[in-house]
Amino acid sequence: MKIIKLGVAMKIDRHGQAKILTVAEIQLLFNEGFTVDPPRDRALFAVCLYTACRISEAVTLNRRDVIDGKGNVRPEIIIRKGNTKGKLATRTIPVIADLRSKLTAYTPRKNSIYLFPGNATNSRAESHLHRDSALWLLRQACARVGLEGVSTHSFRRTALTQMSNAGIPLRVIQEISGHRTLDELYKYLEVKPEQVLGAVASLSMLAPLEPKNSPQPQTSSGFDAPDFDKSVLVEVNPPATALNPPPA
User: pLDDT (tens digit, 9 = 90+) per residue, 6-19?
Assistant: First the structure.
């Protein structure tokens, strides 16, 4: 049986687990946090949030796997096998409206094959944005809005936990996340104390109802019970014997 731990330590300086983001925190980051290159940064982390992908998978996305020849966002994002952890399999993730709006607002550099190319003025001009650069962008955004414990993995953990809480079967979530086994997926999911309380509280329906008129316990003979009618008792003389002669 797999146990999902409660109260995991907040991630600080790459120690502990990445924070699960609330809706308010997500809005704060996207609306006020990303200021270095807002359209790009919002698109980048929206990809992480709405596809539950790793940051390394997001920064290495090919432009043509997201944008078609006419410059329109495709209905699905292709995460190629070669860019996944362990190079297990290619994943195809549907693009929902929230992600589409962020991608539509972003115009990637046309002279790069990558959706998120590296800085055009340095050595990574021909490559993709480095994952450490993405982490730096996120740290700047979190510092700006006062959030702690957030890492690039927070978007993946948040997405997977949200799907689990929504009742999506774990096998379907695994197809999206790309985890090799369900055991690996379990490590990403967070269970809140109120969820545990709600689960235990649901057992109250199993409590037996108390009867309106509970029967009184009887003694071993039954003659001394409060509701026994003693008028039915008949005195019986014991049989005559030498020690017990019959009455005169």
Answer: 444 445 444 467 89
Per-residue pLDDT tens for 92-109?
A: 999 999 999 999 999 999
State the DSSP H helix or E strand holding residue 113, giving kind and residue range, or none if neither: none
Q: What is the pTM of this model?
A: 0.72
Q: Under DSSP, is residue 199 helix (H, G, I), strand (E, B) or coil?
A: helix
Amino acid letter at 193? P
pLDDT for the residue 202: 77
Buried b or exposed e, range 10-47, using 16+ CB within 10 angstroms: ebeeeeebbbbbeeebbebbbeebbeeeeebbbbbbbb
> For helices 153-165 and 170-177, what crossing angle results, to 10°?
160
| pLDDT band (50, 70, 90) for residue 225 | low
Helix (H, G, I), strand (E, B) or coil at 102: helix
> Which pair of structure tokens corresponds to residue 109?
């550099």
CATH of domain 23-193: 1.10.443.10
H or E segment at 130?
none
Check: CB of residue 136 under 8 Å from CB of residue 67: no
pLDDT greater at residue 230 or residue 29: 29
Give ∠ CA 117-122-126 in degrees, rounded to 5.
40
Phi, psi of 208 (to 5 degrees): -70, 145
Give the chain's end-to-end CA distance (angstroms, integer). 84
